[in-house]
Design goal:
The complex is a heterodimer of chains A (374) and B (119). Helix content of chain A is 21%, strand content 33%. With 374 residues, chain A is of the alpha+beta class. Chain A is globular. Chain B has helices spanning 23-29, 76-79, 83-86, 111-118, and strands at residues 2-3, 8-13, 16-21, 32-36, 42-44, 49-55, 59-63, 68-73, 95-98. In chain B, the strands form two sheets. Chain B has a six-stranded antiparallel sheet. Chain B has a three-stranded antiparallel sheet with strand order 4-6-7. In chain B, strand 2 (8-13) and strand 3 (16-21) form a beta hairpin. Chain B starts with a strand and ends with a helix. Classes of the chains: A alpha+beta (374), B alpha+beta (119). At the A-B interface, helix 2 of A face strand 4 of B.
């Protein structure tokens, strides 16, 4: 079974011991589910807390050669996002764009005072590191970190659980970052995640990771959660999966990510100056031709990625990019791209599933209310 | 009870064959969230795709194991697809099929042979 091409997580043996079903994902053997199964893992994360191993993602430190301002401005030249205005101790969502305004990757970055800490998608991480080295080498060193584990602890009880082990995290708010100490080991904590729930992402050295993960799993509220539930949780939260809902042809405006494009990059002396600015700013002003919307199929049949969408009159107007069953919504949910003329909330469309055209309604995102600790 | 290589079980009920999926198959599928059943009074041939099962992971089909007429389907599964995981060998049967000759079942595996297959 073991594919020599696949990398193993530092905590591989722990996942196997927990009964994790390991599958290939983004070049790694990853736990897709544990014995509880996707449905129970999903619902447990929404009602208590779940721990996810997301060590396949790329962790990168950008250390300025001279000063943080020069680094922030150079980083801003890579994406339509305000880096300079991000306060120390805060994290923000970002998007690398290409010259045609498409998305190379989405990412999280944090201002840690004397450097930026960046987390990128697993499948893109090598290309992202090369891209950052090409764009930032005059002003920063780009350190790709390979010896730290990244865990996510997500759910309404995540705050209580982590504060029991690391009291300093109690005061953190959504998108804060901090570096408290657990058991003599500095851990890098952000109050964020990708499930729509309150929670944390925790980076820590491989040498402490197993003890820390086991301590988390010993807490009565906590279950291990696999990639399967991670996908249904992020889908219900209306969050994009890179390579599916966003990719090199889709712009941030088409992806309905206008909230991620701060005003300082659209208007004033730092407006533009990022790859694809002409297209992105034009679409922001005039509205895109097609855009990402939420979709609620009327029956119980899930509309999965690739499902073609039609108007009631039979014109093909879009496609589903992520879809499945939402365990907390208790119904199928999907996201996809449709022409702007069909994107109004409440519009009834048809999705073709196994040759049958089934009704599906355009709806607001998220499908399940987010519960971040603001 | 007889078993197919496609992990279906077949149980004789009078002159009908009741068809469901094995516990092994249900576990492999994961949590079932949607079941699409055939129309009753339809003639099917062995190998026809007659049922669609969608789990949280993916869609898969159940094939007609034998030639015959679908005479009854388990409508409970439409509202409670999770029965497939909770009681695959009992409450979660999918359809009943009328065959010309029950001897057609002789070609399928018995429980020991099936257990060897999935071992």
């Amino acid at each position: 079974m073991a594919d020599p091409e696949l990398k193993r997580l530092s905590l591989h043996d722990l996942h196997v011991a927990l009964g994790g079903k390991m599958v290939p994902f983004a070049g790694y053997e990853m736990p897709v589910q544990y014995p509880a199964g996707v449905m129970k893992e999903h619902l447990h994360t929404r009602s208590a807390a779940g721990v996810f191993d997301v060590s396949h993602m790329g962790q990168v430190i950008l250390r300025p050669k001279t000063d943080m301002v020069a680094l922030a401005l150079a980083f801003e030249a890579m994406m339509p996002v305000d880096v300079l205005g991000l306060a120390e101790g805060r994290q923000r969502y970002g998007l690398f764009t290409n010259d045609t305004g498409g998305i190379i990757d989405d990412l999280m970055f944090a201002n840690c005072g004397d450097h930026l800490f960046v987390v990128v998608n697993a499948a893109c991480k090598e290309a992202d590191v090369a891209h950052m080295r090409a764009c930032l080498s005059d002003v920063a060193t780009v350190e790709y970190i390979e010896n730290r584990v990244l865990l996510a602890l997500q759910g309404p009880q995540a705050g209580e659980v982590l504060a029991r082990l690391v009291p300093k995290v109690f005061a953190m708010r959504f998108m804060d970052v901090a570096r408290p100490v657990w058991n003599g080991c500095e851990i890098w904590v952000s109050r964020s995640g990708y499930t729509g729930e309150d929670g944390f992402e925790i980076s820590l050295p491989e040498s402490s990771a197993e003890a820390f993960a086991k301590t988390l799993l010993d807490q009565p509220e906590v279950m291990p959660i696999g990639l399967g539930a991670r996908d249904s949780l992020r889908l219900e939260a209306g969050l994009c999966l890179y390579g599916h809902d966003i990719e090199t042809m889709t712009s941030p405006v088409e992806a309905s990510l206008n909230w991620a494009l701060q005003k300082s990059r659209r208007i004033g002396d730092r407006a533009g100056g990022f790859p694809g600015a002409d297209r992105i700013l034009a679409e922001f002003a005039a509205g895109p031709k097609r855009l990402r919307v939420g979709l609620r199929p009327e029956g119980r049949a899930p509309m999965r990625e690739g499902t073609e969408l039609f108007t009631i009159d039979g014109d093909r107007i879009g496609i589903v990019t992520s879809g499945g069953f939402g365990p907390s919504v208790e119904a199928p949910v999907a996201m996809g791209y449709v022409f702007a003329s069909s994107a109004t909330v409440g519009t009834v469309l048809l999705g073709e599933v196994r040759g049958k055209r089934l009704a599906v309604t355009v709806c607001d995102l998220p499908f399940y209310p987010t519960r971040y600790k603001r | 009870m007889k078993y197919t290589e496609d992990h279906e079980w077949l149980r004789v009920d009078g002159d009908l064959v009741v068809v469901g999926i094995t516990e092994h198959a249900a576990t492999q599928l994961g949590d079932v969230v949607f079941v699409e059943l055939p129309e009753t009074e339809t003639m099917v041939a062995s190998g026809d795709e007659v049922v669609v099962i969608e789990s949280v992971k993916a869609a898969s089909d159940i094939l007609a194991p034998v030639d015959g007429e679908i005479v009854e389907v388990n409508l409970k599964l439409l509202d409670a697809p999770g029965l497939v995981n909770d009681d695959p060998l009992g409450a979660a049967w999918f359809f009943k099929i009328k065959v010309d000759d029950l001897a057609v079942l002789d070609q399928f595996m018995d429980e020991d042979q099936y257990n060897d297959l999935i071992a």
